[in-house]
Structures are given as C-alpha cells and as structure tokens.
Amino acid sequence: MAMSPRQRRELVNGIAFLTPNILGFLAFTIIPLIFSLILAFTNWDLRLHNMFKDEPLKFAKGENFVRLVDVEGLKAHAASPQDVPLPKFWRFLGNTLFFMIGIPFAIAASLMSAILLSQDLRGGSRRVYLTILATAGLFVGVTMLLLSGATQTAFVVMLGGVFCLILLTGILGGTTVYRTLFYLPHFTSGVATFILWKKLYNPHTGPVNNLLSAPLESLSATVNALPPATVQAGMWVSYAVMALCLFSGLRRIRLMWKDGELGWAAAILPTILLILPAVVVRSWAPNRLAADLVGLVALAMLVWFIGRVIRGQDFPCPYDSGIGNALMISAALMVIEFVCVGMAIVFSNLPEMAAQGLAPPEWLTNYHWAKPAIMIMGFWAAVGSNNMLLYLAGLSNIPVELYEAADIDGASRLQKFWSVTWPQLAPTTFFIVVMSVIGGLQGGFEMARTMTQGGPAGSTTTLAYFIYSEGFETGRLGYSSAVAWTLFLMVFLATLVNWKFGNRYVNE
Question: Do 311 and 368 contact (CB within 8 A), yes or no?
C-alpha cells in the first residue's frame, strides 16, 4: 500500500528528529562494541603499535582468551610446581566474587530499613520529651567517655551529636526526615565519599582506629588476665553455632522437600552451600581436632538429611521447583557459618595475639583487611540506596486485607513477614537481585581506583579495574578487550540463570 504524501512527510520528520539519537547510539555504543570485539582477536598493544613503531597488527585468533586461563604458561616460568600462581584473571575474578558476598547483606539491610521507614515513627508529646532527655543523657555519656580518655579525637562527640540530632528530628518530623537522611548518601558524589572513607580508615590519624584503640587495649588486658583455655572456649561455642545453623538449614530444606515446595534438583545446590563451610574449615582452622570434629558432625547431619530425603515426598513437585526460597535460606546460613568459622579462628589465636598487644587493623594498607574495609563502606552506602526506595514502593502496594487476615489467624510478626510480606515483595526482590549481580560483576572500579589503586598486592583489583589497567595503563588493548567480553559473557549467563529460576519463583 502506497504511502500518502502526508504520511511520507510525517515519516521524514520523525526520522529527522530521531537522527541525533540514532547517530549518538551508533557512534558511542554500537561501533565501539563491534570495534572492541574485533580488538579481542588481535595483538594490539600500544607499546608495539604506535606512531613510533611499524609493528604490523596481527590476527591472534583466540590467544587472548587462552591467556585468561593459561596455567601451563605460568608453569614454564615458575621455579617449582608449588610456586605456580593463579592467572591474574582468576585472582581478580575471585576478588570480584568476594566483594559480591556483601550483596545479600545489603539487600537484607535495604529491606529492613524500608520496613522500618514504612511505619509511622512520629512521636507524641510524651515521646518527644523522653527523646530529648535520652538525647541529653547520651550526649553527657559521650562527653564523659571523651574526658576519661576513651578516645583521642572529637569524632566521638560529633558522632554522638549527629546521632542525637537524627533521633530527635526523626521523632519530631516522622518518616519523612528518616527517609531523607537514609537516602542522603546516595546524592553524594562517589569519589567524594571514597576519599572521605579513605581518611576515616587512615591507620594513624583516622577516627575509626582512634575509636578502636581503647576498646582493643581493654580487651587485650582482659584476655591476658584469663587462662588461655577459657578464651579458646569461644572457639567451641562458634563451632556449635555453626553446627546449629547447618542443622537448621538442612532441616528446613528437608521440610520443603517433604511438603512439595522443593524439587530434587533444586535441593542440590542449597545443600552444597550449607555443607561448604564445614568442608573448607579443615584447611582454615588452626586446631586440627576441632576441624575433624566439625567434619564428623557435618557428615552425620548430611547422612541424617539424605536418609530423611530418600523416604520420598508427601506432595510431588517439579524437579526445579522452589529453588529461590531454598537458595535464599542456604546462602544466608552459609554466610553465618563462615562468620562462625572466622570467629573460631580468632578465638583460637586470641591469647597469642593479646600477648603481643591488640591493635586496630591497617585497613586499606593491609592485604587481608583491604577487602573487608571496602565491603563495610559498600554496606553503608547500600542501606539507603535505590533498593530501599524500591522496597518502600513494594511495601506500599501490599493489600492491607492480607495483614488483616493474618491478624485474624493469630499470626506473629515473623509469620506475617514470611507468609505475606516476603512473597508479595518477590517481584521487587527479583529485580534487585538481578541488578545487584550485574552491578557486582561490573563494579569495583571507582573504589579501587580512588582508595587503593587496586592494592595492596592486587587484593582489591576487580575485573572492571583489571580491564582498565590492562587497556589504559599497560596498553594491551587486545587482551583488555578479551577480558571485557569475557566479563560480558559472565554477566549474560548470570542474568539468564536468574531469569530462568528467579522469574519462575516470582511467578509461583
């Protein structure tokens, strides 16, 4: 059907208006993507291919991708087989995944803050007066701590004053004030925030270490005054809590399996996550007897779990059903188990550490503390991020009738959250998880560049920073492009997995 002159004129006008956007998309997105894909299969190196050298550009086939995982090439240059290091790609991928451990904590904190901020927090006149008195008492207490030598900086007074001001204004202004204060860090420039936290983490003059110095000195004196066996008893308590978490997780998975909420294939990965801390504790724990006992207890629990599972289901379900809930529970308990393993190691070594004197960590300049320091900062920023706003919007859309029905049935607050709030927030959580995984795989560049330059010894170098350093610091543009496209493939596959299982969980 032929177009009329008017339709043809409207089409030309529409294309004319869209042309700037189309040209910009081609110039800054499509063409660079295609160019970087071509670069990934070449040996382009700015040290060899520049205006001062006439080195021909060669087609390297898949050599750049082979170098990502080439352990044999590293063996040829190693003094002994035991000295073979991991390829840089694997090391920095491990750093990236380590930083992503904080994603569940950030999501949980955003949800809790959204639930808190969805309540009516405005107080009556009596609550205002009580808050004023509590604020005055807190300020006096903080001042006494300062005068008694508990710290060497006025940061404690400022922190106490800010906390008191937030508490008072929140009671007077209600949720509007709290929501504004929680979301305020999101408006702050990222680089400015990173510089501020770098100053806070300064091992010599930073307020964080000034705050920790006095408590650590007191703890060191207390530990030295106690028998070593008494202090090391905390190791057994930590392992007991770890065993309790493992049993709780396996029991919950078994009940979900029995009631037809979890398929057989969907139960495999959550079970592996729960058992993983008990497996790695053998290589981490300094006390071999304790590690063996933990392994035996975990093995006994696993045998009990398998014995109960093979009895069958009361209500059959699809093989991959319910993986979302099971993964959430097992991942949360796995993190707690790893924390217990770390606490057990600390209690085991605490008498020896206290004898030498406990001192605050050096944070960003220490190989083992640099990543946790950045994760703490990321957790602080994530509490009041866009995830909180998304959860606030999701909470406001939950029908009140569901809560009223739960109240009639006598449900507790925890039961209402698990049976009403959490299922209704499944679409929001699915979106947040997908975006957080994508952001976690792609993130870390700004923090590493501003705070640590990727150090110390590459401990904070993520894949994003690795791409930058290879492409713009060393000039290996071909290899950098190969890393970038490998990262794209990882993000794509992770998104497909989330969409496959998470979307089904949302629809259920």
Answer: no
Q: How far is CA 6 from the centre of its chain?
A: 56
Question: What DSSP designation does 59 have?
Answer: B
Q: Which amino acid is it at 197?
A: W
Q: Are residues 386 and 186 in contact, defined by beta-carbon separation less than 8 angstroms? A: yes
Which of 482, 483, 490 minimizes the C-alpha distance to 466?
483
Distance CA 200, CA 191 (A): 14
- Which residues pair with residue 13 across a beta bridge? none
The SS3 assignment for 50 reads strand
Cα 335–chain centre separation: 11
Q: Quote the CA–CA distance of 422 and 256 in Å, as a whole number.
A: 17
123-173 per-position pLDDT tens digit: 555 555 665 666 666 666 666 655 655 554 455 555 656 666 666 666 666
If DSSP states are collapsed to H, E and C, what string results for 161-229? HHHHHHHHHHHHHCHHHHHHHHHHHHHCCHHHHHHHHHHHCCCCCCHHHHHHHHHHHHHHHHHHHCCHH
DSSP E strands, 88-230: none
Output phi, psi for 42, to 5 deg: -125, 170
254 close to 301: Cβ distance less than 8 angstroms: no
pTM, to two decimals: 0.80
CA 408 from centre of chain: 38
